[in-house]
Design goal:
Blueprint (H helix, E strand, L loop, with lengths): L2 H4 L9 H25 L16 E5 L7 E3 L2 E3 L3 H11 L3 E5 L2 H9 L5 E6 L3 H4 L2 E3 L4 E2 L3 E6 L11 H5 L5 E5 L6 H10 L2 E5 L3 H9 L5 E5 H10 L7 E4 L9 E7 L4 H16 L10
Parallel strand pairs: 1-4, 1-5, 9-10
Antiparallel strand pairs: 2-3, 5-13, 6-13, 7-13, 8-11, 8-12
Helix pairs in contact: 3-10
């Protein structure tokens, strides 16, 4: 084969190949955001499963000790146990489905039929799209969790003194409510904030690494979190506030398309269960 034969052809159609490649590259650049969105978010409507069991209702939860825990014998916790007892007493069969917290609220907001999310606080926004059960649990008063060596966080002060400190950064979980009192105080005092999608263990590590100063959490949850974090417990402290009200009540949220007969039966069982428990009636008041 001669050098002339080996040389690339330069006929009248040779220009079409590079032009085609250039057009394809431009199309891919502009189509990339759409394609990525369809790959990673293929369906704007949340779906639990295409095949439903013979259960009456689906209950959504996420891992958050000591409220919701998946163990060898099943799901249990401070908020799970009273709901399970109420469902049993009401003769309501339930499927328990683990789902990220923000996704749970989407399911309720999208009015997925016969669906509930366990352990949520009540706030005005959620009351617009969810049906609340009677209270299933009441937390101990909220505290702030901080590094033990942070001198700016001291127990016994008013909450406003901490929120009004311009030198400190409050770590908040995206989309979470900390109860009406704290939510309103945050709006009023406008502290410096760092918003995160991390779960509690991730938030604890952010505080441990000095990327934020403190975050709000119930005391029973804080105890469990610190003890199971793998970090030294002495590195942290619980900050209590003199004006902090009693802990927030937690509820079972139902979608608005949940059968009212199911809601009524579950609520009646919750109320009866509380009346039969003299150990700590104040936690439901």
């Amino acid at each position: 084969m001669t050098l002339k034969e080996m040389a690339p052809k330069t006929g009248p159609s040779a220009w079409k190949i590079p032009v085609f490649c250039l057009c394809l590259a431009v199309v891919l650049v502009y189509a990339k955001p759409f394609l990525a969105d369809r790959i990673f978010h293929p369906d704007p409507m949340p779906v639990i499963s295409d095949t439903r069991s013979d259960s009456d209702i689906t209950i959504l939860y996420h891992e958050r000790p000591p409220y919701y825990v998946t163990g060898p014998l099943g799901i249990y916790g401070l908020c799970v146990d009273p709901v399970k007892k109420a469902l049993l007493a009401a003769n309501v069969r339930a499927d328990w489905v683990k789902m990220p917290a923000a996704r749970q609220l989407e399911m309720v907001r999208f009015k997925v039929k016969n669906t509930g999310a366990v352990g949520w606080f009540k706030n005005p926004d959620r009351e617009k799209y969810a049906v609340y059960s009677s209270a299933i649990y009441r937390d101990k008063p909220m505290i702030a969790l901080a590094r033990a060596d942070n001198p700016r966080l001291v127990s016994g002060r008013l909450l406003a003194q901490t929120l009004g400190d311009p030198e400190m950064i409050l770590l908040c979980k995206d989309g979470y409510s900390y109860g009406r009192f704290i939510d309103e105080m945050i709006l009023k005092h406008g502290p410096r904030q760092k918003i995160t999608a991390a779960e509690n263990i991730g938030m604890l590590k952010l505080v441990h690494d000095g990327l934020a100063d403190y975050f709000f959490i119930s005391e029973e949850e804080a105890v469990e979190l610190v003890q199971t974090s793998g970090l030294l417990t002495e590195n942290f402290k619980f900050v209590r506030f003199s004006d902090m009200p009693g802990g927030n009540q937690r509820y079972l949220l139902f979608s608005q398309t949940t059968d009212t007969a199911i809601i009524d039966r579950v609520n009646a069982a919750i109320i009866e269960q509380r009346a039969a428990d003299p150990a700590d009636p104040a936690k439901y008041e």
